[in-house]
Amino acid sequence: MGEPFEGRWWAGRSTPINREVAGPRCARFGAGRFFLLVTARVFPSKQWMPDFINVIILAVIEGITEFLPVSSTGHLLIAEKWLNSHQTDLFNVVIQSGAVLAVIPLFSSRFHQFIYRWRETATLDYLLKIMLAFFITGVGGLILDRRHFKLPEELMPVAWALLTGGILFVAVETLLREKKLGGQVTWTIAVAVGLGQLIAAVFPGASRSGSTILISLLLGLNRPIATEFSFLVGIPTMLAAGGLKIFHAFHHPVADAPHENWGMVILAAVIAAIVSFVAVKWLLRYVQTHSFIAFGWYRIAFGGLLLIYIFH
């Protein structure tokens, strides 16, 4: 008899697969189960990996997904479970801040406008709308913080959020295919974007950029302007949230909190910044001529695979 099918790779043990029993087991558990077992064999527990490799992988994932409408929080949660490498909130916040700071040069013309032409009516109007969206998110975020809200760390809500967001993207893009969208950010859009960021803060996997871009599209804003406004609102929002968490970590440390390896944190932040710069530069070009439907199908496929994995 071959070795039994036992052990789960997410618990830190590889799953042995014996050719003598692979066929019968495949028939017994189905193709989906067999695929997961093969994946477990090809990608066993990552406990053998050096810490710096885990850190690099997480930094690359953060850099790619922070501004893309696919949820960086969800991807990091999945990656940490896959790598069996749980990181502190401070680590995640610092690398997120690195990814955010890196994209500021991509909006240099906008920031030049805000600094040197802020008295112009159009500039002041746009800047006030960013501030309004940021204010709404900030107030909601402070309320959540006062209530000690903490994101769930289970995969189930991430899978459903990815799947739901993907279906909505495909549906909305299909609905808007023949429609001409506008290029003016309204006060209604600014309020909706602020609320959209709160939705993403509460539901891991919803994606901050995904939620705000989707809402802006539904309210008639074209893709390039919706993407730019979402990112410009996200910069102060995420930096403020990151700064608050860093402040709490240093001035109100949690008892028995693990020691932070700042060398690894800085390495991850730099890598996340470089990758984020490249990813956002690509996305800003992409949305000039493409819709978000590809991201919708990606979310559907990823969320569906996660649900298959969870229920098996």
Written description of the protein model:
The structure is a single chain. This protein is mainly alpha-helical and 312 residues long. The protein contains 13 helices and no strands. It folds into two domains: 36 residues, no CATH class; 265 residues, no CATH class. It is 71% helix and 0% strand.
Percentage of helical residues? over 70%
Estimate the mean pLDDT confidence. 83
Helical stretch count?
13
> Which sheet architecture does the biggest sheet show?
none
Strand proportion: under 5%
Kindly give the count of domains: 2
Low-confidence stretches: 1-29, 34-48
Outline the secondary-structure elements:
Blueprint: H1 19-29, H2 31-42, H3 51-65, H4 72-83, H5 89-102, H6 108-116, H7 121-146, H8 155-175, H9 187-202, H10 208-218, H11 223-251, H12 262-286, H13 293-311
Short structural description:
This protein has 312 residues and is an all-alpha fold. It folds into 2 domains: 9-44, no CATH class; 47-311, no CATH class. It contains 13 helices and no strands.
Which descriptors would you attach to this protein?
mainly alpha, disordered N terminus, 312 residues, 0% strand, single chain, globular
